[in-house]
Amino acid sequence: MSLCINPLCQKPENPDNTLFCFGCGSELLLEGRYRVIKELGGGGFGKTYEVNEARSNTNKVLKVLINNHPKAVELFQREAEVLKSLNHPSIPKVESDSPTVYFSRGSTEPLHCLIMEKIEGLDLWEYIRQRENRPIDEKLAIQWLSEVVEILQQVHSQNFFHRDIKPSNIMLRPNGRLALIDFGSARQVTETYIAKQVQGQVTGIMTAGYSPSEQMHGQAIQQSDFFALGRTFVFLLTGREPGDFYNAQTGELKWREATLGVKPEFASLLDQMMENIPKQRPANTQNISQRLSEINSYKSVSKPVNQPQAAIPPTILPGNYKSTEKSNYASLIKRFFAYTIDFIFLSLIGVFIGGFLSSSLGFDSDFKYESMAGGLLGAWGWFIGGLFLGVPDISFIAKLSIIINLILNWIYFTGLESSKLKATLGKFLLGLKITDLNQDKISFMQANIRYWSKLISILMLTIGFLMIAFTSKKQGIHDMLAKTTVLKK
Fold first, then answer.
1. Of the residues 3, 267, 297, 427, which has the maximum number of CB atoms within 10 A of its CB?
2. Residues 201-228: what's their mean pLDDT?
3. CB atoms within 10 A of CB 69
4. Which domain holds residue 26?
């Protein structure tokens, strides 16, 4: 299959042997030698494709800028310049004639294109996700940090700094080696840059949880890369986003207790790399490399035979990890009490709404009590409320009260669970939160899947709900379908 990169093309898929798109007429053999075979990803500014160079039959990566804003074009062209300046086996190489431009059929707006080496493997965010958020151990973390620092040494020695280091921008190759990618945000330290920085003319590029505060104000320096690198290794050593450990009142990042056996010397190095004030971070990559060598020397010193050894910290073995991990999942009992609090709260709201409806519409006391009862039934969910909606003897005001409270019940659970609070009232009071499998906030769609599949579980004699007590991650059927879990805060 050959893909058309025209962003307006309605039918971009074409047979391999065609030269022009059947859908829009745009050229398919780019630069007379590259055929697009697969889309790899995309965002607001561009798309990334895998291409095959017909002459050498090698696969490469094509980055296409679809936003022609001058700042976007500047960053795009800068990436090509940076990659051409750097020569390292763990940094993707670009074609000598990149970047280039491509014009779709009938369009006067150019598409800026960049052809570069394809780095095989997984980025580290995806790697941790496929490990079900199981963190790496200290030994591998030290090895990986040494490797990334060596790559960064090449970048910094050319007076560049990356400005966007994060797990998704570090690739793990099939041979176990790492590569640093995505240099679109990289800058060179020059007198012009420093002058613009002083005048506040440098764009602040941020990735939440990984970028230091000075970068937000357009004041990034080479030590800014160390901050982001330290935060990246917090993610790798905990399997959780760094923001989960941030205390806004104290400004501290309390992450050490979430790891499994990280030595104080290594943890202290990472904490120094993540200092809020840049001058308190390591001065350069050589400084970090020296510290890592010292840490390795501490580890290699053997203890005397007659000296009692300290307790060996837990290792990252699957069985050991799961025993630690399970303690963070909410139990069936705790979740049951959380639901009880929610239903009591909704019942009070339902009774209030029923009484308010009856009073505002001028019904007598008999209808008022019937309306309040309808509100109570609606608050207790679609199954109970739905049963009584079909009863012909119930008055209109009672049915209206049931319907209003059924809708309120749905809004309450789906709205709060997908909000930044990550919890209903009951879960919040008991210190629980609902997250996706990456421990991030769930979407409104996931909240709906949880809500409606939970209703089905209740109808099935609560079997789906009782599964919480027997699954490794304390998930009911509704959690499994929505790809969510309930954790202790």
1. 427
2. 76
3. 10
4. 2-117
Statement: residue 184 has pLDDT above 50: yes
Please tell me the distance from the alpha carbon of residue 23 to that of residue 356, in angstroms, as a whole number. Answer: 60
Mind listing the pLDDT tens digit for each residue in 403-449?
Answer: 777 788 788 888 888 888 888 888 888 888 888 776 678 888 888 88
Q: Tell me whether residue 366 is one of the annotated catalytic residues.
A: no
pLDDT at site 329: 76
Question: pTM to 2 decimals?
Answer: 0.55
196-206: average pLDDT = 45
Residue 317 maps to a domain: no
Residue with more model confidence, 103 or 202: 103
CATH number at residue 36: 3.30.200.20
Side chain identity at residue 460, one-letter code: M
Phi first, then psi: give them for residue 97, nearest 5 degrees. -95, 10
Q: Does pLDDT of 22 surpass 80?
A: yes
Question: Average pLDDT of the chain?
Answer: 78
DSSP string across 325-373: HHTTBPPHHHHHHHHHHHHHHHHHHHHHHHHHHHHHTT--HHHHHHHHH
474: region left, alpha or beta (phi > 0 left; psi from -120 to 50 alpha): left
Shared domain for 102 and 127, answered yes or no, is no
Is residue 109 within 8 Å of 414, Cβ to Cβ? no
Catalytic: which of 123, 137, 164, 182? 164
- Structurally, how many domains does the chain consist of? 3
Helices 222-238/264-273 angle, 10° precision: 140
Query: pLDDT at position 43, please?
Result: 62
pLDDT at 192 (0 to 100): 35
pLDDT, one tens digit per residue, over 320-333 is: 333 334 446 778 88
169: which DSSP letter?
G
CB contact at 8 A, 424 and 431 = no
Query: How is residue 338 written in tokens?
Result: 């959380």
C-alpha distances (whole Å) from 270 to each of 59, 229, 274, 293 are 37, 9, 6, 14
Nearest 10 degrees: Cα torsion 162, 110, 22, 12: 30
Report the alpha-carbon distance of residue 361 to residue 351 in Å, rounded: 16
- DSSP lists the bridge partners of residue 122 as 172
Residues 99 and 135 in one domain: no
Euclidean distance between CA atoms 194 and 210, whole angstroms:
23
